[in-house]
Amino acid sequence: MNATAGESPRLLRALRREPADCTPVWFMRQAGRYLPEYRKLRERHGILDLCWTAELAAEVTLQPLRRFPGLDAAIIFSDILMIAQPMGMQIEFVRSEGPAIRNPVASEADVAELRPVEPQRDLKPVLDAIRLVKRELKVPLIGFCGAPFTLASYLVEGGPSEDYLKTKALMRQPAWPRLMARLTEAVLSHLRAQVAAGADAVQVFDSWVGAVSPEEYRERVMPWSKMIFDALDVPAIHFGTRTAPLLELVRDAGGDAIGVDWRIALDEAWARLGDVAVQGNLDPQALLRTPADLQNRVDDILDRAGGRPGHIFNLGHGILPETPPESVEAVIERVHERTRR
After folding, report:
1. What is the pLDDT of residues 72-89, one digit of tens each?
2. What is the total count of domains within the chain?
3. If I label 141, which of 9, 107, 170, 225 is the partner at 20 to 30 A Cα–Cα?
4. Within a domain: residue 57?
């Protein structure tokens, strides 16, 4: 572990807002499409094959740790929509477009047809991959799941959306609380199963929640997210994008750390959030810039964090496919070098 004898790893110390020997760093989507070794696997296996085969998911999870030994955490390779398949959703991954759901949810009858999820039966490859990864890891492993709102938006829209018109229309219908209740139950059972399998912490991805207003969030999103965080007994990160108008509400929904994107300065976000850990918030496009520009952007975030315990360095969203691996390594080295105590 990245700690001296008797100490917790940096990531777990940061989640408790305790001092560590330096700021922990990991990256959303650190395992995947920007790595040459991942692309070689993708030549032989589809994305769903990688997710649903424990040995392949474990291999992809470990690839960035082998290339970048300085990473302070691994995150299990999976997809937030895996949980939707055993519920009865027909999912395909369309090249250059992303996930497509062929039988989207549009009514109370559709919600009623959603099947309950039993992780040990329905998501066993994810749990087996966690067990395989834990045999090799020397840093904490993060499990994850999509938040109820983001999952609901995929199920209702049938895939990514620009305007979330169908989702917002359903939010005003009696079907909405029933859908959110079904998803909340599935998410919580999946997260608990990941922890039982060996995950040291979890991250809940509410990636698209920035599409709602504060009022919509408070009334139709927050109660379900809060239910999940209140029930977890493991360190948890709560992540979303475009959440600057919602920050205090997201904090109140729960999480030991709140992930923020690059659309708000880290120090401004932390001042509003108060006594929680903060994760972020480098723009993923900065990894495509010159080494000098990238270093300046990393330094600016570290300066805004001010060395306070509780900062986890990460991106404001996932690594882009065009990212040079050398840029990832440079960020890891710079964060540790600048913050080493």
Report:
1. 999 999 999 999 999 999
2. 1
3. 225
4. yes
Residue 1 is assigned to a structural domain of this protein: no
Q: What is the pTM of this model?
A: 0.95
- Whether 79 is a known active-site residue: answer yes
5 belongs to a structural domain: no
User: Is 42 an active-site residue?
Assistant: yes
The catalytically annotated residue of 17, 33, 178, 289 is: 33
Selecting among 16, 17, 21, 42, the annotated active-site residue is 42
**Full residue range of the structural domain in which residue 310 is found:** 10-339
Catalytic: 154? yes
Please check whether residue 111 lies inside any domain of the structure.
Answer: yes
CB 316 within 8 A of CB 260: yes
What is the per-residue pLDDT across 154-184, written as a single tens digit (0 to 9) for each?
A: 999 998 888 999 999 999 999 999 999 999 9
**What's the CATH code of the domain at 316?**
3.20.20.210
